[in-house]
Amino acid sequence: MSLKPEVRAVVLGLVCLVVLATVGEAATIIGMCISNCGQCKEMYGDYFHGQACAESCIRTHGVTIPDCNNPATFNRFLKRFI
Asked: 14-43: string of b/e by CB count within 10 Å (b at 16+)?
């Protein structure tokens, strides 16, 4: 069974919209991860491992976005100096 050209065009358009929405959402999450981890790095300086924070946040697709005012969200990225 072959689809009509109009139906193919509509399906292709919907697929393109879904792909674009997904890419846009990913870019937003990555930006938020980098921004929040960068802010924590500015606040805590050498005591904060900003790169590990950003990598973890991006790897989890924003599930672990840190809040610099809530230690429970970023304490694993703090460094101890002896």
From this structure: eeeeeeeeeeeeeeebeeebeebbeebbee
Check if the beta carbon of residue 55 is closer than 8 Å to that of residue 34: no
Structural domain that includes position 23: 5-77
Read off the pLDDT of residues 3-43 as tens digits, 9 standing for 90 and up: 677 777 777 777 766 666 666 666 688 889 999 999 999 99
Q: Is residue 29 part of a domain?
A: yes
pTM of the model: 0.67
CA 78/CA 51 separation, integer angstroms: 12
Spatial CA neighbour of 57 closest among 26, 23, 34: 34
